[in-house]
Amino acid sequence: MGDSDQQAAYAITDKERFLFDLNGFVVRPGILEADEIAAIRDQIYRLRYDCDSLPAAERAILGGSSSVLINHPAVLGIVKSVINSEVRIEHSYSVWRERGESHEAPFHRGGTQSIQADPIFGYRCDNGRIYAGMVRVVIELTDIDETNGGGTWFIPGSHKANCEIPSDFLEPDQATRMPYARSYSCPAGSAVFFTENVSHAGPTWERHEPRVAVLSAYSHLATHWHKLNIPPAVIAALPREKQAYFRDTWSHDFSERPVIENSYERFVADGSDN
Questions:
Q1: CB within 8 A of 224, min separation 6: which ones?
Q2: What's the CATH number where 205 sits?
């Protein structure tokens, strides 16, 4: 089965589309196999505690074992449905969050922070077609239980809010968190997709087992917010079909005849980075 066939098999469902539009996030449980989870957890552990034990090409997330996440069909099946068929990864990082550690930020984005017209963060839905700016994909590598701390937390619907979010809604930790906030439950190996426009936070982790996750930002090919944080040597070691998701931010080159489109297919077939 080719990449396009796999992505079609994992295409967003009507239920997933409705929930993503309603809440600003949706969960796809169990997209990874047990051996993939174990390998990525080992890489993240060593990135945090023993980086020198990894080959140079694996000393950043999305290199080595975690590269399976870049173009995983269950990820692209949703990302391409809510952004565009041509997407790129502009930022990725991993967390190994021990008890008492947090993202060190209150709820952010959502409401008037979101700037709905901003092409990078904006969100709209027209005739059942979602047009999201940046979409964050969280790959949870620990079992997550909403009743026992959850993972990432959200203020559902805030990606479409037109009023400022009251300040007392923005406290992320359990003792001060408003009842409107929600997280999710899912087994290790699940993917959580959220529009960067929805208000979200990573509260203090209270469990003894660490939270292990990979968070990647997918954007439309023609927009750019983050400076790419993955070293060139790590990207260079990837196969061409994975390098394509880190290509330069442009859509068309009108200085050439015929006009060049910066498509996935052209990049993979061309063999150059231009």
A1: 90, 120, 249
A2: 2.60.120.620
